[in-house]
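User: Um, any thoughts?
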Amino acid sequence: MHKLLTVPQLIKKYFPHLTDHQMSQYAQLGELYEHWNAQINVISRKDIDQLYTRHVLHSLGIVTVVRFRESLPNTPGGTRVMDVGTGGGFPGIPLAIMFPKTQFHLIDAIGKKIKVVDAVVEALGLTNVTTQHGRAEKVKGKFDFIVSRAVTNMPDFVKWTRNKIRKDSYHEVENGILYLKGGDLKEELKPFPYADVYELPNAFEEAFFETKKVVHLPL
């Protein structure tokens, strides 16, 4: 079997209860992104060899904060999540594999990146993902959570997404933003004293995560 199609042991290490189908989907990501990145550069060249650590597992850092519920009261289709500035599909695609009954809407302002996302979604057979080429402010509808990987500073991100959060919360953390970011966030989060910061080194032992965090900002 091609080495890129081997079930990624890194993902299995932290999420041992995945189904065979989920493991197969994660395993396909390496070859899919290697193929598409050669045509449309959505992942830096230095990162493509570290795809599972720096992109897939990093995306799954959100799972260490909340597990999306399959069903919600008076809500057909269960939890709804929007991924803003998804780029090549992160964190949305790894999360969509993890939570096949959660609805994910992946959006990016750059059309060629959405082209890659659409191709990966189709190849994996993900029926719980929709995509949109555009800006977050233009998206219609409400979501339980909005996820992203450091597309801008938190004050601007809040402006883009403030009116997109559904009021009724049914998870262990309140509805709002789940933001993957690194470094010292004290100044950036000063306007948001109610933000919770989760340190990813507490969940993942790889050196890459040394300064990585998930910021939960209820809205």
In short: The helical segments are 9-14, 20-37, 45-48, 51-59, 92-98, 111-124, 154-161. Residues 20-37 form the longest helix (18 residues). The chain is about 30% helix and 20% strand. Residues 1-5 have pLDDT under 50 and may be disordered.
